[in-house]
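Hello support,

Our group uses your service weekly, and this is the first time we've seen a run hang past the timeout. The protein is Prolyl 4-hydroxylase alpha subunit domain-containing protein. I'm not sure whether the cause is the sequence or the server load. Input pasted verbatim:
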Amino acid sequence: MKMSSVRVYFSCSVSIALCLVLFSGVDTATSINDDRFMSDVNLERYYVIEENALSNADVLLRDDYFGTDDEEEEEEEHLQHAPNLTTFRSVIDEAKAVHRLAGPDLKTFLAHPINVYHLFRRLDNGWRKGLELLLQTTPCKKWNLPLIVGRLRYLIENLPGSDELGHVVEYIAKVQNMYEINVKDIVDGRIGGTLALKPLTIAEQFEIVKILHEKDDMRTTLKWLHAINEQLPQLSSAQREGLNFSKTDILNLMASAYYDMRQVSNALEVTEKALELDPTNRIAISNHLFFTNKLAIQMDKSEPSLTRTFSGKQISKYERLCGRKKQRKVTKKKCRLIRVGFMHYKMEPISYKPNIVVFHDVIRNKTSDTLKNYAHETQSDLAWISEETFQSPKFSVDLNLDKLTENSVKQETKILLDQVSTLSSLVNEKPETLQQLQVFNVGLEGIHLKHHWSEMHLYSPPVKKWRKEAGAYFVFLNDVKIGGEIVFPDNNIILHPEKGSVLFYYHSKVSLHSFCPVIGSSLWVAVQPIQEHLRNYCVDDDEWL
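Update from on-call engineer: The timeout came from a worker crash unrelated to the input. Re-ran successfully.
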């Protein structure tokens, strides 16, 4: 794990940083379309980037490093060509304050989507300009320190941009709609029972609105616009003057969103309000004429219900299941106690067609905690090539008994495999063929396993091997506060993961399930794929009497 050793403050001279070795040809990008993008390890990467940017800024951000080397230069002359560092210093001060608070509990910090939004926004808006500014310092330009320059350029190239920030905003909107979170709670940073380090400013809210509008998410755009519109009267005159938008801009965006949702009458209504505030606003004048003519043309046609539009096709069946309130309540489980030797196992049949079963309270806490921590540390170690060089994290971590070196991890892996073997005797008479045991992480975006069947060895048997079936045991290594549910959209089934429980089903008979987005500490799951002979069928190696 690199997190504990990354941040270094240089107190003597810039030359100390020459120890950095830059690696070339390393895959440093994680696609924003990949559900690993907001996994624990990938988010830690961006936190580390800011840590290293801070260490460079502490060394290079000195007034006398900007401008000429003329020692006799007067202060007034220096100020004429020296850049204004006030804005950059405020970014540094904010980042230091955040890292002081986040450092002791980094997992909780990165598990909050508003904290992630602020981190990405700070890296894209503040640090990008700041690091470019550091390249203009005397050490970078005149002291012949190529590794320092290379280090800064490497950081700049790996900063998140507008696409990554937009992806975070899309995620916030998805979670907001899925779990029916009020905009005010998101603005206050109150999600999943925890508070963000700081709330969203009204300027940040407007930036989010513009991103949502560009991505054609008009349903969520309207919710945010109404929330901003309610906040504006509460601002002082000085605060309103400091904004880069006006109430008229808000109303014009509302009109655009309403029109895209085929709510022409509502679009016309808010446009008239905009004209009351600013009769000379060209956008409002043009919109008013357009909406008036449009409404006259479709007088005989009824507009779709706004309520129906808000809950329409934009939400998939997967999202509806994840947001089902009924699942958040504790319900009585209908379990069967099955005895194996001196042990009793609680087995809960979830479905008979297809067969889906959950075994409760199977794996002990020590086993779960050991394997979860090992998987997180291993995934992080494999992703970090050096102190600053990062490659895309692998989807999962293998637990191979022949390759494990830590005795505690090896012992707990054996215990887990023994438990899976015992459970298999309850499910099937024939001993199954075990594939590679792995552990993977479900983060802020959730996961659709159908996109990862190859990586996880969740293969279906070849057609000619019709006597075999393929299944998997999914072992939940920790609890989660909100989200992380196991969803079978085609079968209208949803389950909440519980630490120590095990899910089993045949993925050769039912489509691979998905995981809902997790709010709060992420979910870690061990998966043991199997292939087995069906009951009561002859197989090629059977002996005939």
